[in-house]
Amino acid sequence: MNRRRFLAATALLAALPVPAAAARFDRGVLWRLTKKGTAASHVYGTVHVADARLEALPVAVERAFEASRALVLEFLPDPYAQERFAEAALFLDGQTLEQKIGAADFERVLERLQPIGLPREFVRKMKPWGVLINLRGAGVVEGAPHEARLAARARRRRMPTSQMEGVEEQIFTFDEMPMESQVALLRHSLAHAGELTELAARTLEAYLARDVAGIWRLREAFIARHPQVAAHQAVLTKRVLYDRSVVMAFRMQREMRRGGAFVALGALHLHGEKGVLALLEEDGYRAARVY
């Protein structure tokens, strides 16, 4: 059982829809944040997948990272956090995934998760949100996502590195989602696997074009085609995107007040009036797009 791969897709759900908002933050993945009396910091929007086109940092991002004093990431999973998250994604009270979604959809889950190599009995105990995370990551090409590479480089530089969330907070985001929404979103993902694969590819293309609003429009169009799950998508969006953006905008400021922080987080956390850039400006910072 490969629990490291089981966890690799955890942050994929950060790339969820946001409403139309401040056009100023529609484009750009690297922003310079300044505040009177404090040295500048940078906020970098990432995409939580592994792809050869992401292996090298853009020149502007490379320069900002190399000039920074400290790295701040969404989450830094250590062995304990990995085990804790994997445990939290399981039913430990006798309930089963098959009971929640039915025998036919359970067999579809097994087929879809086959590339990850999780045993049938392990999958049988998984909660719907755990499966949903893995379905969105099961087709990811081998490689290190943005955050993992940044963390490795920071270690080599002996660069202070911190996280904005703990494992219990990550668990809470998913585990307290209503079971009705978990089941509805999982069944929908199983029924529309091909469409979601295409959406993921187009989302990456929009990211590479630094079109953050374009990612939102892709998701908005997808939801418009499937209104039966719109209410459940709204629940997920609030929990995974909006609520977490508030927390992260607050916590990243601990290093930003010291100056020279390089903050990396999912790109859609940058977008719109509820994104971290707008929230930081409310706290007295000024955001300027670099790349």
Explain what this protein looks like in three dimensions.
- By secondary structure, the chain is an alpha/beta fold.
- The protein has one domain.
- It has 15 helices and 6 strands.
- Strands 4-3-5-2-1-6 form a 6-stranded mixed β-sheet, with helices on both faces.
- A hairpin with a 2-residue loop joins strand 1 and strand 2.
- Helix 3 runs parallel beside helix 9 and helix 7 runs parallel beside helix 10.
- The longest helix has 22 residues.
- The radius of gyration is 19 Å and the shape is globular.
- The N and C termini lie far apart (40 Å).
- The N terminus is likely disordered.
List keywords for this structure.
alpha/beta; disordered N terminus; 291 residues
Shape: globular
Report the major sheet: 6 strands, mixed
Order of helices and strands: HEEHEHHHHHHEHHHHHHEHE
Tally of alpha and pi helices: 15
Break the fold down into its secondary structure elements and pairings:
Elements: H1 3-8, E1 30-35, E2 38-46, H2 59-66, E3 70-73, H3 79-88, H4 97-101, H5 103-113, H6 120-125, H7 128-135, H8 146-156, E4 161-163, H9 167-175, H10 179-191, H11 193-208, H12 212-225, H13 230-251, H14 253-256, E5 261-266, H15 276-282, E6 286-289
Parallel strand pairs: 2-5, 3-4, 3-5
Antiparallel strand pairs: 1-2, 1-6
